[in-house]
Amino acid sequence: MTKLFFLLSGEHPTLPFSELKAILEAEGFRDKVIGKLKQVMRVEADARSVKSIVHRAALTRLCNTEIIQCDAVAEEILEKMRLAPLEDFLQKGETFAVRVRRVGESAPHLEGLELERKLGEIILSRVKGAKVNLKQPQKTFFGVFTEDKFLFGLKLAEILPKPFVERRPRKRPFFHPSAMQPKLARCMVNLATPRSGEFVVDPFCGTASILIEAGLIGCRVIGFDVQRRMVKGSLRNLRHFGVEPEGMAVADARKLPLTRADCVVTDPPYGTSATTLGLGAKQVVESFLSSVGDRLSGGKRICMAAPVSVRLSDIGRGLGFKHVESHSVYVHRSLTREIAVFEVT
User: Fold this and answer.
1) Beta carbons within 8 Å of 213's beta carbon, 6+ residues apart
2) pTM of the predicted model as reported, rounded to 2 decimal places
3) In CATH, what class is 165-343?
4) How is domain 2-158 classified at the architecture level of CATH?
5) 3-class DSSP assignment, residue 34
6) pLDDT tens digits, residue range 77-119?
């Protein structure tokens, strides 16, 4: 077990933490959360878990091995660094750089560039033969100020947002205005905790936002939609991103031609641009959840979105599902989604 800390996206206050924890659970890594700060999560876990997080996460930015953690006080930071086992992280002759970032208005009394310089000097004095290279370092040490704390470690990986930008709805061959953004779709898939090779089913597949993200992390995907044109459009989008589904079919989500699934991840239709067969959003959710439980074995998960006015978590509990968690996600002035996770009992 290694002490790790992760710099998380500031796009939502709770989803990044839940997504990271869900990935560790899905991939079978034992972990212990040792601290949560604004946009930072500290855990004890197998260092190999970082590879899975990089492969799957949408809302994690940087993965680091933790070297020191202390109050955001210059003297304490420098003293801890002088005592830290820096030789374990940097070898003689290796090049390095030091980067310090600030979350929000944390520690305004400390100047980041000056601290980078002082930390670099300590590393140079401790590791003989090490050299600074600010452009192409072999290793990068990363520090972050958050909530008047300072964490510092060796950067293991960075997750860039560009691939998600390239999969935005308007960049796909088939577009619909109700399509979910890829980051949120990926996060929902992760909250359902599927492993690579397991079946992820979306009964309201729309333009395949969720299925694309599930397929790209190695899951087998099956999609349904009541509209033929959406199924055909989903298939175009999936193949555009190199995902070959196990099956796609025109079907009513209340009567799925499906015997089993490893998890369900879905965003049912609502709003003026959606087709709901004359049903209100609450009716769609109730009728679907009433019919889907017997397709999943005990302990399997459903991650689902709906307008907050539907009270999704209440409906799920009322139908006998275990409510794991919910998150409120603002979309625009007339829509705030509840992202709810349920477990089959």
Assistant:
1) 58, 182, 185, 186, 189
2) 0.94
3) alpha beta
4) 2-Layer Sandwich (3.30)
5) strand
6) 999 999 999 999 999 999 999 999 999 999 999 999 999 999 9
